[in-house]
Write a structure and sequence with these properties.
mainly alpha; Four Helix Bundle (Hemerythrin (Met), subunit A); 7 helices
Amino acid sequence: MGDAQKDRDQAARLPEGDVVAILLEQHARIRELFGKVKQSSGERKQKTFDELRALLAVHETAEQMILRPVSADKAGKAEADARNAEEAEANKVLSELEKMDVDSAEFISRLAEFERSVLEHAENEEQQEFPAVRAGCPEDQLRKMGSRLQSVERMAPTHPHPKVAGSTAAQWLTGPFAAMVDRTKDALSKD
């Protein structure tokens, strides 16, 4: 995840609807949101962090549910397990960040560490996982995965849930219920 434009350029070279193209676009947006959170303060910073938090929660849930089972087959179980473990740890940190004052020194310090780990995770996906999935799947399967990924994202939790993060089975079992609670919480917090 070198930079947002590089991710977008790479995504643009892939067929529309391809699961990897969708994920690369999201990586670009995540990178941009980290920058905006760091450059903001007060209510604007909180809103931008909330957008980043929701995108990360949805993105990682969808990867675990749609991409990881295929990755385990195409890139190997160890690769899929490593990415799931990184996401489980990120989910814990995101849950901690969510409870902090976004203008506090502790938040700023933890966010910097978190950004480094998220970018490293994305780089691992882009260099190891995505190429194996693209090489091992026909184009129609990659488009179907993209469609499924987007469907899952519409129903995924918007807040971190560390107890189920990193487990595809747990995401399928509890994700829809957690999403209902999260989306209700989000709607009520807008008042």
